[in-house]
Fold this sequence. Notes:
The structure holds two protein chains of two kinds.
Chain A: E1 5-7, H1 13-19, E2 24-29, H2 34-49, E3 55-60, H3 65-70, E4 78-83, E5 86-92, H4 97-104
Parallel strand pairs in A: 1-3, 2-3
Antiparallel strand pairs in A: 2-4, 4-5
Chain B: E1 3-10, H1 14-25, E2 31-33, E3 53-54, E4 64-65, H2 66-79, E5 83-85, E6 89-93, E7 99-103, E8 113-120, E9 124-126, H3 132-137, E10 142-143, H4 146-149, E11 157-161, H5 165-174, E12 180-184, H6 194-202, E13 206-209, E14 212-218, E15 225-230, E16 236-240, E17 243-246, E18 250-252, E19 283-285, H7 297-318
Parallel strand pairs in B: 1-2, 1-8, 2-5, 8-19, 10-17, 11-12, 11-17, 12-13
Antiparallel strand pairs in B: 3-4, 6-7, 7-8, 9-18, 14-15, 15-16
Helix pairs in contact in B: 1-2, 1-7, 5-6
Amino acid sequence: MAENTFTISDATFDEEIGASGEPVIVDFWAEWCGPCKMIAPVLEEIAAEQAGKVRVAKLNVDDNPDVARRFDVMSIPTLIIFKDGQPQKRLVGAKGKGQLLEELAEYL
Amino acid sequence: MPESRHVVVIGSGPAGLTAAIYAARANLGPLVIEGEPSSTTDQPGGQLMLTTEVENYPGFVDGVQGPELMATFRAQAARFGAEFLTEKVTKVELSARPFKLWVGDASAAEPTYVADAVIVSTGARSIMIGLEAERRLMGHGLSTCATCDGFFFKERDIAVVGGGDSAMEEALFLTKFADKVTVIHRRDELRASKIMQERAFKNDKIEFLWDTVVTDLVGENKLEGAIVRNVKTDETHTLAVAGLFVAIGHRPNTDMFKGILEMDDAGYLITAPDGTATNIPGVFACGDVQDHTYRQAVTAAGSGCMAAIDTERWLEAHRKTPEAFTETPTEW
């Protein structure tokens, strides 16, 4: 996995997200979701380019339904930006890099 | 300085990628500006990226997955030297040659690319119902992508709006997850193909609400139901559903070409009856962006091949006067 991108699960979510000093973009995704696969490399790029400002955490909704349910995720890809363990902003649907950077600007 | 290309293909569905395969094999070194990721059909690979099984594309006895088919098209074009840019064209200037194309910032003084010939294959995207509530509930029960979101409606009641093949395909796919799928259709018969109709009618989980339209959605942060009206009796009631999938038709992606390329009232580009030429010499159109009749992957691919051959012949005919590509021509 690319630099500054990591995997989280139902079991590790609270610990990883709560303890993160930087904002974390949680990417709710699944293997069978085409648009999720398309934005995965874009998110990895953003994570690598924005190292020190923001990190990307990947959460597979197939394997980790609890966190998805807790945050009412009903469509993927959904990106939720967490800061100090709290959800700040939610982006639903795949987007190009330019548009993602615009939406994320306040956290970068 | 803008980068100069012989041929730029805008869009990367079956039409654009077939055009790229043929243009690449003709040594025209096409650049495919393939679009950007999205959760609508306006994305690299086009409408097939949001479908599952494609059963009617020739050459695949057992069918093929839509995204897999498009990945194969793309790899085949790349094999012959087609190049790809995963961004969107934001503006075109086609009034003078070479044609100017902007990627990203449309207000930039200089275009990103100049091209001798342009193949337009921007396709069509699915339309929404047009309700205020759609914006609020998109991704919270309202979806444009059954393959992405069906999973979240396990053992729930959901609805599909529409009566065509796309609507039937979504309804059938969604029965894998949902307890009940109600198809809401504004007429009393489907326009889907016979085979899809039969499958939908035979499926115990699918019910039909005929002569019915959705007039509003219920739910503040999460979809709870759809308010539906029977167009014959005017009776209104609320259908309790956790999910609503809309498949009521398509709109061509031609906003960028308004006032530039000839189009019909619905926005479909008009091409010459005997080929893919648009009203601007050197600009060709193929696939769903110029076809509201057939709209099949195989017809799109066929017209993509035609566009590449038309482009190659057109470039060949005008190559005798190389300055024609750098000067603003008056008449050819």
